[in-house]
Amino acid sequence: MTRRLAEVAKYVGVSTATVSRVLNGRPGISEATRTAVLTALDVLGYERPTKLRGERARLVGLVLPELQNPIFPAFAEVVAGALAKRGFTPVLCTRTADGVAESDYVDMLLEQQVSGVIFAGGNYAQADAEHEHYRRLLDRGLPAILVNAGIEDLGFPRVSADDAVAVEQAYNHLASLGHERIGLILGPPDHVPSSRKHSAFLTRLAVDGAPAGIDPEDLIERTIFSMEGGHAAAARLIGRGVTGLVCASDVLALGAVRGVRRLGLGVPGDVSIVGYDDSSVMACTDPPLTTVRQPIEAMGQAAVALLISEIAGNTVPADELLFETELVVRGSTGSGAAVPSRQVPAQAARAV
Question: Could you tell me the pTM of the whole model?
Answer without folding.
Answer: 0.81
